[in-house]
Amino acid sequence: MRWMVMLFFLGVCYADDLQDVLLRIEHAQKGAESYVARLVMTSYEGETKTGQAVLDIFVKGMELSIARYREPLLDKGKAVLQRGQDYWMYFPKTRQSVKISARQRLFGDANTGDIVKPPLLSIYTVQCLSNQGGVDVFELIAKTPSAPYQRILLWWNNDEGKIVREDFYTRSGVFLKRARYLSHTKVGNYFFSTKSEITDGIQTNRRTVIEMRDIQPKELSERMFYPEMLGSLPAF
Prior knowledge:
CATH topology: outer membrane lipoprotein receptor (LolB), chain A
Radius of gyration: 17 Å
Oligomer: single chain
CATH superfamily: Lipoprotein localisation LolA/LolB/LppX
Number of domains: 1
Largest sheet: 13 strands, antiparallel
Low-confidence stretches: 1-11
Structural class: mainly beta
Mean pLDDT: 87
Strand content: over 45%
């Protein structure tokens, strides 16, 4: 049923395999089926660096992700779990996990849902707005108030199979921020974004650069993706 709805909306833009286009967009957000990686987030005001955080990333398919802090020292050991549309934050001092929102700020201008992304096509309806010069613009409208953003405009380079840009809005149309996707790497049959930059919608001199490094395909057990397991994650 999900694909039937998507294909209806996207028919105005595509004559090729629409299901493949949608899969490539989703994989550009999440990458390989099962892997670990190192994530570096650096915040700036103008050209001045204002902070940095380093996280371990664990991903298993579209439904399961974990981000665990390595740096700064104050946050070391904290972890964010994503299971479908639900999120938890683990606090090592109390050894407790607390349910949180996808909109909770993680670092700089990046929210939880920007780093450990939910399954995009499960929580948004999609409409193709335009197709010019090989770049398509999609409008994504949230199906639920708990989605990271209520409205997203997404630019997709269909010729290269790469995500280019996203603009994020409230339901009423207030512009929140912009993500530009600067570098990609091929993982399997898909191009995965490995470097992006998020710019605040109001304070445009504020930005956060996000880099995915040391991506290693790794078979991960589904058992680790539960709130009670976040205190015993493996090292890598």
